[in-house]
Batch of 4 targets.
Target 1
Amino acid sequence: VCTGDLGMGQTAKYDIETWMPSRNSYGETHSASRFYDFQARRLKLRYRDEAKKVRFCHTLNNTVIASPRVLIPILELYQNADGTVTIPGALRPYMGGRGRIERQ
């Protein structure tokens, strides 16, 4: 992300995007930001280095996943003609091993 789009204290930010067929483009589903010691100073989050000097930690701030945004590509790419949704292989362990979601 360009520096003009960084929030307060952010030194770097990476947007992770997913293909969304209805948009015919990629859309942001989550992001990761680096803050160096900005957040740690406000939280007084410190550690002692090997020389026993007290230093501030460097922090990262990440959105794990924006669930409404990630549903768009899952439904667009995995919904079947009968209305069921095939669960992508990578997500099946988190869905009890199920292979599809059906209407009830």
Target 2
Amino acid sequence: MLGLRLRIILARVRTRGLPGKVLRFSAREFLRCSTPRKLTNFALAKVQKWLRRDRLVSMPYRYFIDPLNVCNLRCPLCPTGRGELMRPQGKMNLEDFKRLVDQIAPYAYSVQLFNWGEPFLHPHIFDMIRYASQRRISVQLSSNLNYFSEEMAEQAVASGLARLLVPVDGATEETYQKYRRGGRLEIVIRNLRLLVEAKRRAGSSTPFITLLTLVNRYNEHELGQLRQMAADLGLDSFSTCPIFVNTRDREQVEEWLPEDERLSYYDYSAEQLENVWHCADLWESCTINWDGGVAPCCWLQDPSHDFDNAFTKPLREIWNSEAYISSRRVFSFGGPRKGPEQTICTRCRGRPEYLIC
């Protein structure tokens, strides 16, 4: 009855512009994926985070699962693009993925099926999407969409993919290739049209397609054009994301950070640039790499920072391991408390910069 009432309310909501569409999509996905057990777990996770508990009854309700850490582009601020990944390259086995999904399905609202690679390069990506979606998990991908085809567009729609984020960091070919090196804007636009047409033919509202712009000094003046591009292509939303840099590297700061501070995470007035990110991952989400390595967040690409391995140990056991307990104590009320072991979270303190971590 509650779900029916919420659906009626959502149907009556009059939204203005694209942000309203995102809100309605997110709410509908939450309702679609909800079960009494998931709702209880979700509420427990929020309460335990607010109380800063270090031992948790709840399980994560958001997951990053990286199907592979291989990419077809060479983005200059990405360890994959620079060829500096510390984790060996590889791809997750489909059966290992299914076993992971079986563990998390009672709790998971969403799986971000990407991290350090281009997910559409995985030969079983649509099987993965379909398997998780059938377990009432909202599957979301981020793809540069340079490797795509009409057949893949049809599979993406049929697989149950809930949302697709497509990073487009320039309204012109020249600007786009400043960051998406090795990619071509014209190919991305062509593939977006294929996807929109595949949705139309299938009469499907999913995947919900978002054109995402990583705001930097080269493209900050093109945001209006990019927003219009999303509308002209018939996409569902346009969004921006501030770029992250190694603040100890002045060349990166000067080349990439936008001149307009409002478009950045960083406080430009600080003597040493600081971001304003605050961590919730230790209570709400879990990152699992292609090889099963469990990391406390999606920023970490060094396997030496893994807390354990989800292919060899149950996730629930890992979730309340000494590594997780110690990491949560970093954020205790009244300041950090010492845990049974030191972790990368002791150094990060909720303000990650993946080039340093």
Target 3
Amino acid sequence: GKIDVPSVLLTPVAVDASNMYDVIIKDGWHKLEDVYKNVPKDQWPE
């Protein structure tokens, strides 16, 4: 048999230090506090 399986096809985005804030935090995947919880606050992005 053949079944239609619902899907959402997304374009992958490589994440590195230069775009981590925009891709991970601004896009809502994770909170700033969670990503930087082990980093001193004076080193967090503004």
Target 4
Amino acid sequence: MDRFLIKLERFSAWILLILVILYIISGYGITKGIIDPVFSKYLHDKLLAIPFFIFFVLHVGIASRYALMRWGVFKTAKSANIYTIIFSLALLILFFWFYFL
């Protein structure tokens, strides 16, 4: 299970890097016109937001689980898993609440 989580965390980090680069390009497309401003706004506001936050929560949740276990905050993997699930779900709910307001 740990090996899978580490691979998932690294995969989400690479996807996040690609999404951040696309966010930067679409932001410059909106403000500087390097690509079509209408497409840039659609990409920036509608298309990238949900995948970005899903991979962000995935990356931060798993990485914080391992960091807190390494620092001795959690003694067992079960308590760390419960924390990760609650923290990740709270972030996802908060994001979707703000996104769909």
